[in-house]
Write a structure and sequence with these properties.
Radius of gyration: 24 Å
Distance between the termini: 29 Å
Number of strands: 28
Helix content: 25-40%
Structural class: alpha/beta
CATH topology of the largest domain: Rossmann fold
Strand content: 15-25%
Shape: globular
CATH superfamily of the largest domain: Peptidase S8/S53 domain
Number of helices: 15
Length: 638
């Protein structure tokens, strides 16, 4: 314990220095500011009160101003509204996830959620009138009426929100951004506006390929690519439950036809059935020509379906790009899809929102980090609403923790991208949406089999994302978890509402990530066998394995949010934990050294490198889907 506490003191001193060095702005610390002004677009022009939102890129002063944005430049915006009863939503989610509650697993449909917790129709319609009168076109409204998608040119965006859209350059990157905070009518309940800049967005990590052919060595185990069948055996996935009746959602962007073609090559090569594929695009998106993410989406589809080959459907929620606005629309499309999957995967992320932007004067950096890259986002406040809705509907988002170790990908460098599998950037924040209390964060391991379907070695991947959010309070299901030792500094707005309380730790669970040199997962891309790896692999593997657990439950409602089902079982340790997880905590047998991810080391039980560890799916089926005693081969959990 003393070692962990001394390690935390070092982390805390590092981050506190950042907070002290960078004062939090009043708008960030206190939320939207209220100012008198003139309201346009709400039944005409009247004098009233405006709310000023903190939707401004951090560190714009460090970028080069290139001039105003062209008046005709188009913007696609997601205007998020505060739902009226957040306390009621939280109470419902707590009840539906509590085995002692009469509401346990009585999940809502999207329509039921909208009727019970959605934004009042009159309020949403008023927002629409305001946007349209201001010259914007309303493209779509979410079923729960908490997200309004609109488009418009820079001239109208500037006038409506009282901002100045400019062109900037940071390093070699040109982008558009608003120079001032947007203002909105205070009475409309606008929570955040996403899309006012073209810089912030998710990034999907991918790495170089491992050797394709397996070679088994006495000490190392089998070097090369693991197959779906290898993982069925190592992660103890029973043949009786292969995901029948379940579907998995995949979030991505751009083209899908070649991704589906590559999936068919993968299925043929490994003797798997063809999984039906449905493609869903957010309303208003029309350009799906980008093919730069093909390798990533191949990993996601082939990992998830490879673990659950009898899926009834893969649903590809693909937007135009990975901008915050488009990702938010895709997430909202999933939770409001009446036939949407109970499990979905997001193999991308960006740094969690934090009040210390821009980071300057940190001892590990000379000057400021590149403006807006990673540190902070406008999506998080709105995505939290979307993901809580998913929990109320019994759905789980699996999200990769990233490939930069105990750091979020704050620095984008030439050639190596965000340093995936190469660089731990030493900024002790976590990847979002993995850091959300309403997502299941998946870390990575390096796994070697013995060539006969058994584990030879498995240890924490040194670049697997993990750590404390430092800002987001630990959710109820995570409190009391052994080794969860890092307290919060402040909340995401900069207020000391949670200072000293346990903070959310990630990952929750882990699976194969590989090491980009000797180990990975065999996928097919453009007709050729290649390697998939990183936590971009670990997360969809879990989405597929969770579909097996859900399918074993034998109900259309499923077993609910994965974390709420897993944590209460595993906190006590003992036989249940040993049945459900392989504890990735031992020294690596080849080197004799403990392998962590930078600031954190693997420990017995839950830890900040691999969460609870890697799954024994048959045990999870026994304890979660079958309640231990209801299925042959299961023993009572007590």
């Amino acid at each position: 314990m003393s070692g962990r506490l001394s390690r935390w003191r070092a982390i805390g001193a590092f981050v506190v220095a950042a907070v002290v060095a960078v004062p939090v702005s009043a708008s960030a610390a206190q939320g939207p500011g209220l100012v008198p002004g003139v309201l346009s677009g709400v039944g005409g022009t009247v004098t009233g009160v405006l709310a000023q939102l903190p939707n401004v890129l951090p560190g714009l002063a460090h970028a080069t101003l290139l001039g105003p944005a062209p008046a005709t430049q188009r913007f696609s915006l997601a205007v998020g509204l505060q739902r009226p009863d957040p306390a009621g939503e939280a109470a419902f989610v707590a009840a539906v996830e509590n085995p002692a509650s009469p509401q346990y697993r009585h999940f809502l449909t999207p329509q039921q959620f909208a009727d019970r917790f959605g934004v009042p129709a009159a309020t949403e319609q008023q927002v629409e009138r305001w946007l349209r009168t201001g010259g914007l076109s309303v493209v779509a409204v979410s079923q729960s009426r908490d997200l309004v998608t609109a488009t418009g040119d820079a001239a109208h965006v500037n006038a409506l929100f009282r901002v100045t859209e400019n062109r900037y350059r940071a390093g070699s990157i040109d982008f558009l951004a608003n120079a001032t905070a947007p203002t909105v009518p205070a009475g409309l309940g606008v929570k955040s506006i996403v899309g006012l800049n073209t810089l912030q967005g998710m990034r999907a990590p991918h790495r170089t390929a491992a050797p394709a052919q397996q070679t088994c060595l006495a000490l190392l185990g089998c070097v090369g690519l693991t197959t779906p069948q290898d993982l069925w055996s190592v992660y103890q996935q029973p043949a009786a439950y292969r995901g029948a009746g379940q579907s998995v959602g995949i979030f991505g962007a751009g083209r899908t036809d070649d991704v589906i073609a590559d999936l068919r090559d993968f299925e043929k090569a490994y003797g798997l059935p063809q999984v039906p594929v449905r493609v869903v695009h957010p309303a208003g998106d029309t350009d799906f020509t980008d093919d730069s993410g093909r390798l990533e989406w191949n990993i996601d589809t082939q990992a998830s379906s490879g673990m659950a080959p009898d899926l009834s459907e893969l649903v590809l929620y693909f937007g135009t790009d990975l901008s915050d606005a488009d990702v938010l629309q895709s997430l909202s499309t999933w939770v409001n899809d009446p036939s949407g999957p109970l499990q979905a995967n997001a193999s991308f992320g960006e740094c969690e929102t934090n009040p210390t932007n821009p980071v300057t004067g940190l001892p590990l950096f000379a000057g400021a980090l590149p403006v807006g890259l990673g540190l902070g986002n406008n999506l998080q406040p709105l995505a939290e609403q979307v993901l809580l809705q998913a929990r109320s509907q019994g759905r789980t988002l699996f999200s990769s923790t990233g490939d930069t170790g105990s750091s979020c990908p704050a620095v984008i460098l030439p050639v190596i991208g965000a340093g995936n599998g190469i660089l731990n950037q030493a900024v002790p924040l976590t990847n979002y949406p993995a850091s959300s209390p309403s997502a299941t964060a998946v870390g990575g391991t390096v796994l070697y089999t013995n060539g006969a379907g058994a584990r030879s070695r498995e240890y924490a991947w040194p670049f697997g994302g993990g750590g404390s959010t430092l800002l987001i309070s630990a959710p109820d299901y995570q409190r009391g978890t052994p080794n969860l030792a890092v307290p919060c500094l402040v909340d995401p707005s900069g207020a000391p509402t949670n200072t000293g309380q346990p903070c959310r730790g990630v990952p929750d669970v882990a699976a194969l990530a590989g090491d980009a040199l000797t180990n990975g997962y065999g996928i097919y891309s453009a007709g050729a066998l290649t390697s998939g790896g990183g936590t971009s692999l670990s997360s969809p593997l879990w989405a597929g394995m969770w579909a097996r657990v859900q399918g074993a439950a034998g109900t259309t409602a499923g077993v609910g949010f994965a974390n709420a089902a897993i944590y209460p079982l595993e906190k006590a340790g003992g036989a249940t934990y040993a049945r459900d997880f392989f504890d990735v905590s031992a020294l690596d047998v080849a080197t004799g050294a403990p392998l962590g991810n930078g600031l954190y080391l693997p420990l017995p039980g839950w830890d900040y490198t691999t969460g609870w560890g890697t799954p024994r799916v048959d045990g999870l089926i026994c304890d979660i889907a079958h309640k231990a005693t209801a299925a042959p081969g299961c023993t009572a959990t007590g």
